[in-house]
Specification:
Layout: H1 2-19, H2 43-51, E1 60-65, E2 70-76, E3 82-89, E4 92-93, E5 111-115, E6 120-121, E7 129-131, H3 137-141, E8 150-152, E9 161-162, H4 165-180, E10 186-191, H5 197-202, H6 209-225, E11 231-234, E12 237-240, E13 243-244, E14 258-259, H7 262-285, E15 289-292, H8 296-302, H9 320-323, E16 325-328, H10 329-339, H11 367-370, E17 383-391, E18 397-405, H12 425-430
Parallel strand pairs: 1-10, 8-9
Antiparallel strand pairs: 1-2, 2-3, 4-9, 5-10, 6-7, 7-8, 11-12, 13-14, 15-16, 17-18
Helix pairs in contact: 6-7
Length: about 425
């Protein structure tokens, strides 16, 4: 009898351990979800929030790391600082590391984006969806194009961050509850990888290094303060947590005089000193080595077994860390030389053009059928197109069509925004 009880106890222990792992969410029976838009967060997460002193409707922030294939939800504690409350394995993302540049390049966005209640789409063909807000003002100033770049379900991506339906159900709930608590915009930070010293050293030869160094400033600010940084854009670049003298007229205009708050400056300097020591150590470790970043096809091959028994449109891509590898520089150069030759034409995106009109009255039965439709429906009540001025290479401007979300009647409408002036983060920081 005692052996049986012990076995039962062990079974309960492992069941509890698995219940705390967000990667087990596929076990959720979605057929029992009566209202996906209002589905409450599971009790295990509510309990964890209570342990961390996080009010139910306190603000949240999202962080995405492509290389690791991770999406994190950070939530404000009672003291105003943020702590991670949930982490999910991204089921599918397309392309390679690096920013999205143009429509159809199959790249998932990288940068800092503000998500409002209007970015929630409860009628997505991919269960639920949240618009990333691409292109933001920085992207527009750089002349980058693209539309309907989402965080959505179905585990299929052509430029989006795709989760399982069970995962996006929770992510959507986090955002909904935060908006109900009065948060007007959720910050999404999308990075190529965790910007540690070793990762930056490993990717030192990338063509995107300058862009990533700029993103790292925002990354460092969050690591130091544990609060989403205030983001401005001027001279076609991101600036973070700056005291600005005057106003910023446009993303392409010259930056006005600005400075970092003294207390924050001291904290960042200390952080940077530690980083530089770690970076020098990493460079010695990686001397003569080059990181080979895998193609999307190589990532898919690593997780091919996950597709077995699934709908054909279920397309997990795996992580770059699983499929990539460190090579000696001579080995890397030999591999690149072997592959040199005419560049192949990029593959046609699997999803139809967003210009195609589809009905949202009923959701297709299978993900394969949904693949034949638009990434998201283009209806007057959900997404609208508006002209926006975009800077060109010669400094002139041209008018391009940029998706601007409009409030969805089925999405949560946040309370009216207070007319009181928002206290800048730097003032909050300086008061501590």
């Amino acid at each position: 009898m005692s052996i049986r009880l012990r076995n039962i106890a062990l079974a309960l222990f492992f069941a509890t351990a698995l219940a705390g792992c967000n990667d087990t969410l596929d076990s959720v029976d979605l057929s029992h979800v009566k209202n996906k838009v209002e589905q409450p967060l599971p009790s295990r997460i509510v309990t964890e929030m209570q342990k961390k002193n996080m009010p139910r409707n306190s603000p949240i922030m999202m962080r995405i790391f492509k290389e690791e294939g991770a999406l994190e939800i950070w939530k404000a504690k009672a003291d105003g600082r943020f702590d991670v409350i949930a982490s999910y394995s991204i089921c599918a993302w397309s392309g390679k590391l690096g920013p999205k540049v143009k429509e159809g390049d199959r790249q998932a966005p990288e940068g800092f984006y503000n998500l409002t209640p209007a970015h929630l789409n409860p009628n997505s063909n991919y269960y639920l969806a949240i618009n990333t807000g691409f292109p933001n003002r920085f992207d527009q100033a750089q002349g980058r194009t693209g539309s309907n770049l989402m965080i959505h379900g179905a585990c299929s991506s052509s430029g989006c961050y795709s989760m399982t339906d069970a995962q996006v159900l929770e992510i959507y709930a986090f955002a909904r509850d935060a908006f109900k608590g009065g948060q007007t915009a959720v910050q999404l930070q999308a990075f190529p990888f965790r910007m540690t010293a070793e990762n930056m050293a490993r990717h030192r030869d990338s063509e995107h290094l300058d862009f990533w160094k700029m993103l790292k400033v925002g990354y460092d600010n969050f690591e130091v303060t544990k609060r989403p940084p205030e983001v401005n854009i001027c001279e076609k670049k991101y600036v973070f947590n700056q005291q600005v003298e005057g106003t910023i007229s446009s993303a392409a205009a010259a930056c006005p005089p600005m400075s970092t708050p003294p207390a924050l400056n001291v904290a960042l300097a200390s952080y940077q000193k530690t980083y530089e020591v770690a970076y020098d150590k990493a460079m010695k470790k990686l001397d003569g080595m080059v990181w080979y970043e895998p193609t999307e096809a190589e990532r898919k091959a690593v997780v091919a077994a996950k597709r077995k028994g699934r709908d054909l449109a279920y397309a997990p891509t795996g992580t770059s860390l699983e499929a990539g590898k460190l090579l000696k520089r001579q080995e890397f150069e030999a591999l690149m030389a072997k592959r040199s030759g005419p560049q192949s034409t990029p593959a046609t995106p699997m999803l139809a053009s967003t210009s195609t009109s589809t009905s949202t009255s009923s959701r297709p039965a299978t993900a394969a059928e949904r693949m034949k439709q638009d990434r998201l429906p283009q209806t007057a009540t959900t997404w609208e197109q508006a002209p926006a001025e975009t800077a060109t290479a010669d400094g002139s401007s041209s008018t391009t069509t940029v998706p601007i979300p409009a409030p969805n009647p089925l999405a949560y409408a946040a309370p009216p925004v207070s007319t009181a002036e928002k206290k800048p983060l730097w003032k909050f920081w300086a008061s501590e």
